[in-house]
């Protein structure tokens, strides 16, 4: 199959974060095939990630959207545990990107958070694949944020 990387996203999301991630990965990982798998909701992301990784991909970015209700938050918890299990059991990179609908009131602000978070985490995935596990060491403790301005380090 050659080198590949995965993007898993949902139809529940209100922003097409998958396309944002795809664009970054195409630019940062030339020569890699991008496998995209869109599923209905966040509880479906662990299965999608596992299927993508089973195809031989080196890593996957999952892009979920959590609604405002308690049931949505519990669904996210289940999905998060599932994604952790996929990462541990496969030994491959799984970057879990999630936007919680209660992070902002204005739809425009939510969209900006989603795009920024998807872009920055896709950059992280590309760096980890290109440079290996030490790729992000230079950023440790720097207070970097995805979806918001960086907080900066505490001196």
Verbal overview:
- Helix content is 44%, strand content 19%.
- With 155 residues, it is an alpha/beta fold.
- The protein has a single domain, classed as 3-Layer(aba) Sandwich (Rossmann fold).
- The chain has a four-stranded parallel sheet, with helices on both faces.
- Strand 3, helix 3 (70-90) and strand 4 (93-100) form a beta-alpha-beta unit.
- The mean pLDDT is 96.
- It catalyses: 2 6,7-dimethyl-8-(1-D-ribityl)lumazine + H(+) = 5-amino-6-(D-ribitylamino)uracil + riboflavin.
H and E order: EHEHEHEH
Q: Which value, in Å, is the CA radius of gyration?
A: 15 Å
CATH class: Alpha Beta
Q: CATH superfamily membership, which one? A: Lumazine/riboflavin synthase
Quantity of strands, as a count = 4
- The shape, in one word, is globular
CATH architecture: 3-Layer(aba) Sandwich
Supply the helix-strand structural class.
alpha/beta
What integer is the average pLDDT?
Answer: 96
How much helical structure, as a percent, in the residues? 40-55%
Pathway: Cofactor biosynthesis; riboflavin biosynthesis; riboflavin from 2-hydroxy-3-oxobutyl phosphate and 5-amino-6-(D-ribitylamino)uracil: step 2/2
GO molecular function, one term: riboflavin synthase activity
Family: Belongs to the DMRL synthase family.
GO cellular component, one term: riboflavin synthase complex
């Amino acid at each position: 199959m050659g080198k590949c990387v995965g993007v898993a996203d949902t139809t529940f999301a209100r922003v097409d974060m998958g396309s944002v991630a795809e664009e970054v990965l195409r630019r940062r990982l030339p020569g890699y095939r991008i496998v995209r798998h869109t599923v209905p909701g966040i509880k479906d992301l662990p299965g999608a990630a596992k299927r993508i990784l089973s195809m031989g991909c080196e890593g996957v970015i999952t892009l979920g959207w959590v609604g405002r209700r308690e049931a949505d938050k519990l669904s996210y918890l289940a999905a998060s545990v599932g994604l952790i299990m996929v990462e541990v059991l496969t030994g491959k990179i799984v970057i879990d990107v999630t936007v919680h609908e209660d992070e902002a009131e204005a739809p425009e602000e939510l969209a900006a958070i989603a795009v920024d978070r998807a872009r920055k985490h896709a950059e992280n995935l590309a760096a980890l694949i290109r440079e290996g596990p030490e790729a992000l060491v230079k950023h440790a403790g720097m207070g970097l944020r995805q979806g918001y301005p960086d907080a900066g380090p505490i001196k």
